[in-house]
Amino acid sequence: xxESCTLPFFTSMMDIRTTMMSFPQSSVLVCxxxxxxxxxxxxxxxxxxxxxxxxxxxxxxxxxxxxxxFIGTYKxxxxxxxxLQEGYQKYPNRxxxxxxxxxxxxxxxxxxxxxxxxxASDNELSMIDAAAETxxxxxxxxxxxxxxxxxxxxxxxxxxxxxxxxxxxxRDEIVSAFADHIPPQDDWVKVPAYKTSxxxxxxxxxxYFLGLPLCRDPDWLDLNTNFAVEVFISAMIINLFPSFxxxxxxxxxxxxxxxxxxxxxxxxxxxxxxxxxxxxxxSKDWPGKPNDLxxxxxxxxxGEQRTASDLIMRVLAIEVAAIHxxxxxxxxxxxxxxxxxxxxxxxxxxxxxxxEESGWxxxxxxxxxxxxxxVKETLRFSGGGGFVNSRKVLKDFTFSDGTTVPAGVTVAxxxxxxxxxxxxxxxxxxxxxxxxxxMRNREGESMKHQTISPSLDxxxxxxxxxxxPGRFFxxxxxxxxxxxxxMSYDVKLEVEGVVPPYEWHGPSMDPSSTGxxxxxxxx
Length: 523
What we know:
GO terms for molecular function: heme binding; iron ion binding; monooxygenase activity; oxidoreductase activity, acting on paired donors, with incorporation or reduction of molecular oxygen. Keywords: Heme, Iron, Membrane, Metal-binding, Monooxygenase, Oxidoreductase, Transmembrane, Transmembrane helix. The protein is α+β, with helices and mostly antiparallel strands and about 525 residues long. Among the domains are: about 5-55, no CATH class; about 145-215 and about 310-385 and about 420-460 and about 460-520, CATH 1.10.630.10. It is built from 21 helices and 12 strands. The chain has helices at about 5-20, 25-55, 70-90, 110-120, 125-135, 135-140, 145, 150-160, 165-180, 195-210, 220-240, 245-250, 255-280, 295-300, 310-340, 345-360, 360-365, 370-380, 415-420, 435-440, 470-490; strands at about 95-100, 105-110, 125, 190, 385-395, 395-400, 405, 410-415, 490, 505, 510, 515-520. Helix 9 crosses helix 21 (about 470-490) and helix 15 crosses helix 18 (about 370-380). The chain is globular, with a radius of gyration of 29 Å. The N and C termini lie far apart (about 115 Å).
């Protein structure tokens, strides 16, 4: 390159450098800082604007304006049923939103949108992340339960697969638990339904999970039945706070440390003994190995998951899911059984005939179609509460109706409203114990309409690959409990036919915690 070509270039560069040096250094730094801020914030600003546009396109149910989050949070906690019903009627087969403290509750209605949720990939809509947020698992349990949820596979496979093998033990505990908590008497005795349901379900589930003698240990039962309730209550309270206050609320509003200490006292010796046996025999399969939850977890756990503290947390996590939901479902069924004496004779007839043929077995419980219908109608009529199919949106997601919801929100389906739609169920506000029994008697539908079978019309257990994996054991347990009551007791309500009023806590619909059912020995 010749000198005549290069000289102007160097001259211009020197001019630019001279010009830049003529600016005050502080001005240069300010300009550079502003450029950096614009570079970093502009994409976030655009993402925020896009999110606002998406949310604004979704109709709102509830308060609006500057204090909408505060007012909406309070109203939804105290009047969730009315708010959800309003949205369901105003926006059928659509999506609407409800304001909360620092977020929106996104509600989807109708079969098509439920199917969209069911078909979405885990990279789009996450059930695990939604459960972690709903139950505030980071504070009520442990973050590890969310990061490595291998215990879900335990519930889906060995826990479900062993129901038939272990059902005799479950039946034995049902008989023993009722004998201890409701001794048969000739005179009518009032029984607190909610509390007793938790006690009996807690014992029955723990006989299956952990066996004797721990399933009857008063401190262990008190721990895991109360812990289940505390997790749900603590989570509801923590969710009333904005995100930046949740760590503080979580620290002071949960009993996790004390619960872990109590659980450690009961479970650590058992776990350490199992680990020692593996070491002794250099194998996970050793002589006399118990067929229970701890063994199933140890078979699947790897690395640091095979520590006592991690395994204890997994046991508690499964207990929470199994005991709280099953206890409330059983309590609802108990209220309905006492309120509808006309169903007792046909149910008893079916149970007696089936047990005479097949004994007290899983097979026999599976054959009890009228009892299955009664349980499913209970779950349809008074179970499911406000939300099922909850999913955290991980990336912007467009539903089949064209509505797009932004990443970061949680979307759910209002189960109670869905199960009380006339287009789905005839006379939906009437309890019809044999509704599903009659549906199964239609040609070609004998295998449909079972309690364990989710569908787009029956969403108590969710749908698709994320349908509740514990529903099989829960249904067999509830049916076994009700069958035992029918064979051993007469039941009634103090006010004939009047079920104690349900209690709504935010979107959760629970049976009355103060209602009583009257028992006497079967006459």
